[in-house]
Amino acid sequence: MFNTIGIICKPNDFTSQKTAWELGVFIKDKGVTLLEDGDDIEKDADLIVVVGGDGTILNTARTYVDSNIPILGVNLGRLGFLADVPVESMIPIVSGILKGEYIKEKRSLLSCQIERNGKLISQHLALNEVVVHRNETPRMIEFELFVDDDFVNNQRADGIIVTTPTGSTAYALSSGGPIMHPSTNAICLVSISPHTMSHRPFILHGESEVLITLLDCEDRATISFDAQSAVSVSVGDALRVKQHDNFVHLIHPKGYDYFEIIRSKLHWGQKV
Question: Which of 105, 143, 168, 239 has the fewest CB atoms nearer than 10 Å to its CB?
């Protein structure tokens, strides 16, 4: 089923590297070609195994989304939303996957571009969310919001989150946003501590285009992508967001249950 596998570790992490080595030995014993170089993975791999956690998967997904290579996540710590293979079950689960025993699903990403004076400044991808937020100052920022060229409103807030269904259980959730099933074709807007309490999370169709223009801020503001990279912006700069053309394909063990992960991570049903 999978003949060439690339393994990606959590950077500068001994446990991740040791676990990846153990997995690599098993994979090669099964007669499967093992790749560890990024260029070779992009060109030749038909499966990527990420040994680390959700953060490592976020980076891997953005890097390889356009190569259309499915990704399996091995979690070294607690169960992750994305990295859902426990390290203690890694070998039997990977063995089953090599026999074709798995579930495959696709996740959408956000294609983001920052514009200044009508010109493109930079482009970015986000699997979870893109966030426009104030810097370390108590003063709110003000921004203008358009969806598909239609004016929505002006807002004063600490910021705004544009999230995918995957990211709905991340920063957006802690800001009062809804949980969206990963299969939902949607983008959600979640204001961060808005000045006007009538601003509520807004779910848009996945094919919508969102334009956020910064109208006022103290000095500068920041736009961050999956909380892993960031760009400093100033008044007049704009963020344009839409769904990326390609999807990330995640591999899950047979019997994968999204709601079981939600129950575990959010502690539903536990006594308080």
Answer: 105
